[in-house]
Automatic annotation (TrEMBL):
Transmembrane segments: none annotated. The keyword RNA-binding applies. Keywords: Isomerase, RNA-binding. One of its GO terms (molecular function) is pseudouridine synthase activity. Responsible for synthesis of pseudouridine from uracil. It catalyses: a uridine in RNA = a pseudouridine in RNA. The active site is at residue 134. InterPro entries: PsdUridine_synth_cat_dom_sf, PsdUridine_synth_RluA-like_CS, PsdUridine_synth_RluC/D, PsdUridine_synth_RsuA/RluA, RluA_PseudoU_synthase. The keyword Signal does not apply. This is Pseudouridine synthase. GO terms for biological process: enzyme-directed rRNA pseudouridine synthesis.
Length: 292
């Protein structure tokens, strides 16, 4: 009996077809299929296959997901798991957590924590980050468990086919909803971004949820992915994010920008089915609005 879905892709054959043509129809990258053929990782009815045979209805094609060496130093820290299947792991990034290790020697990052989680659960894979968040921003981080899942979901992210929603608490009272379509470019210092007619197209939509203490909780959707886009656009409309010392004002109420990636919807790289992932509003943001 072949191992579980963490180690194999399994596909049921529904019509007579050659193995070569069957593989072309799968929701797998062509690069991954070529590697699977080259490294002899394809099985038919639990038997290793090395030829272009004809498949029959009822046959089961299995593609092995190879084990890998760690690409980060395992470090024991309990990260909150939001979702997990054979291809994807989603964690809730805490404020001030660094997402990605710069080199193999670095510790104290989500990469280190997830690598430890993998080893504890007998998952012999590299940590492949699909998205990232600024150090002070909290919320959903996606990790792929194999190269095919990474390339498939990362391509969806690049093509803007993944829905991402944020909570932002901004200064002042905002009513209703709106769309901000203003180009963003680097500022004179090369670090800060700014709205500039010579910049790249950027689109952000927002909806006010509640106002309290002269602050407003917004639901924000990114339609493009420019650096610091939400922070720049909200500053542009006169409502910078509370605690954002780069684009707004210092405050004693919170020690970071009040920005949280709370919702992500992706398609499973294995089945194509939609997966919805949510991360609850963190306590430091709740405190700003006296929420329980």
């Amino acid at each position: 009996m072949l191992e579980d879905n963490f180690n194999y892709y399994h596909y049921q054959v529904e019509e007579e077809i050659s193995i070569k043509n069957f593989l072309k129809k799968l929701n797998l990258s062509s690069r991954y299929i070529r590697r699977s053929i080259r490294e002899e990782m394809i099985y038919i009815n639990e038997k290793l296959n090395k030829r272009n045979v004809d498949l029959q209805p009822g046959d089961v094609v299995s593609i092995k997901i190879p084990d890998e060496e760690p690409n980060a130093i395992p470090e024991d820290y309990k990260v909150e798991i939001l979702y997990e299947d054979g291809d994807i792991l989603a964690v809730n990034k805490e404020p001030f957590m660094i997402v990605h290790a710069v080199d193999f020697k670095q510790t104290g990052t989500i990469s280190n924590y997830v690598q430890c989680y993998f080893l504890k659960h007998d998952i012999h894979r590299k940590v492949r980050l699909i998205n990232r968040l600024d150090r002070d921003t909290s919320g959903v981080i996606l990790i792929a468990k194999n190269s095919n899942a990474h390339s498939t979901v990362a391509r969806e992210l690049q093509d803007r086919n993944i829905l991402k929603k944020y909570y932002a608490i901004v200064e002042g009272v905002v009513e209703g909803s709106g769309i901000i379509e203003e180009p963003i470019d680097r500022g004179p210092d090369g670090i800060l971004r700014e709205v500039n007619p010579n910049g790249k197209y950027a689109k952000t939509s927002y909806e006010a949820i509640l106002s309290k203490n002269n602050m407003t909780l917004l639901r924000v959707v990114l339609h493009t992915g420019r650096t610091h886009q939400i922070r720049v656009h909200l500053k542009y409309i006169g409502h910078p994010i509370v605690g954002d010392t780069l684009y707004g004002n210092e405050t004693e109420l919170i020690n970071r920008q009040a920005l949280h990636s709370y919702y992500t919807k992706i398609k499973s790289p294995r089945t194509g089915e939609e997966i919805e992932i949510e991360a609850p509003l963190p306590q430091d943001m709740k405190n700003l609005l006296d929420l329980e």
